[in-house]
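[agent] plan:
  1. take the single chain provided in the ticket
  2. run structure prediction with default settings
  3. attach structure tokens to the ticket
  4. add a short note for the reviewer (M.T.)
[agent] executing step 1
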Amino acid sequence: MQSKTSPEDPAPSPTSDSVPSELGQRLPLIMSRLGRSLRHAYSPIGVNLGQFPVLTSLLDRPGATVSELATKERVKLPSMTAVITQMESDGLVIKAGDAEDRRCVRVALTEHGRELALAARAARVAWFAARLNHLSRSEVAAISRALGALEHLVEIDS
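[agent] step 2 finished; step 3 output follows
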């Protein structure tokens, strides 16, 4: 991935001095609290935070392999296999062998899984909308401007 910095905004050197102390302390805390808060948005629907990305991935890409899902979510294959096995037990997904490669297991949503995935996606949007409505226009604009940088931050290790 190409860097999104410009000549006026050079990338900091990779020393600990280049990361502002406050940012290095606050950002992980905020992200952790955000993740915990999101759990409350999904819990009434019966979706946990670990299942949500799998459900939405399968909405967008039915028939993905367990390996593809693990790679996308940056988890180890055994961890994704455990999530998929639990979701299968819960009636959210079905697994099937790949016709061309017997080593692959493809995963698709059941009708119940699809309904739950759509409900969870809607709950997430509603959860964020409710909170964003409490912010000023300038705060919403600041978050919007930061999205590209946050996406880049997440993709650095990809």
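[agent] step 4 note for reviewer: Residues 1-8 have pLDDT under 50 and may be disordered.
[agent] ticket updated
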